[in-house]
Amino acid sequence: MRNNTKDKTLKNNYIQTYQFLITEYELVKSKAHPTFKYVKDFYKAHATCAQNFLKYYARYKRSKDLKDLLPGKRGPKYLTRRTPKEIEELVLIEREKGCNKFEITSILSPALKDKTPSPSGVYQILKRYGKNRLTKPMQEEKRRIIKEKAGELGHIDCHHLSKDIIAGDKNRYYLVCVIDSCTRVAWAEVVEDIKSISVMFASLRCLNHLTEKFSVKFSEILTDNVLTLESINF
Q: What is the CATH number of domain 146-233?
């Protein structure tokens, strides 16, 4: 069994020591101390440094609570690094559509940018709200956009490649891919940037190849360039 008596004694000693130091410090600052004329002499005599002492002193002066003279726990305080409620709601909306943590991060990133939660962060949000397992309605919603015939719906997306994929070439390259929702037939083009004009022409080449080689002509295309998937009609 843990002996808390020793801990209590150490805390009392710590508090008494700082109370004494605070009294001495205030006497020095008011130029009423019989021994020390300067604050630096006070720090040197008591083997302490200004940074540590003033941190506890300022905290105690604000609250007048003796507990603030004790060392606090390191690291962030509980609930101070929680994802904002508004972002959690967006994550839950996408989850109801049957999206997994990677899809949710990808869908939210164009709008949220650097505030986008990582896949592991998305998982923690889903776990917190009990949504980490797909329910039957979620699975049905995910299947809703799956088409029955080739060409009913296509998906366009971009993906960056590793810089060291080509030996001696440090340039960044990207893949622009078009995939058919029904047959899963896909065509990808390599581009050097993801500017609108580059992606547009790469997408057109993909569509032309899919039409010529597989006779797949799309009636609708989905892209995730906004917060929710946006339909583009041809």
A: 3.30.420.10
Radius of gyration of the chain (CA): 31
pTM here?
A: 0.39
Closest CA to 71 of 84, 52, 87: 52
Give the rounded percent of residues in the chain with a pLDDT score beyond 90: 20
Paired sense of beta strands 174-180 and 154-160, if any: antiparallel
CB 227 within 8 A of CB 110: yes
Give SS3 for 88.
helix
Q: pLDDT higher for 70 or 43? A: 43
- Count of residues in the chain: 234
pLDDT, tens digit (0-9, with 9 covering 90-100), for 108-159: 998 888 889 999 999 999 999 998 887 777 766 666 655 667 888 888 988 8
Of 180, 192, 173, nearest to 152 by C-alpha is 180
Dist. CA 11–CA 9, nearest whole Å: 5
Counting other chains too, the contacts that 169-176 makes at CB distance below 8 Å and 24 or more residues apart are 176/202, 176/203, 176/206
Q: Report residue 148 as tokens.
A: 């029955």
Bridging pattern class, strands 220-223 and 154-160: parallel
Q: Give tens-digit pLDDT for 1-13.
A: 445 555 667 777 8
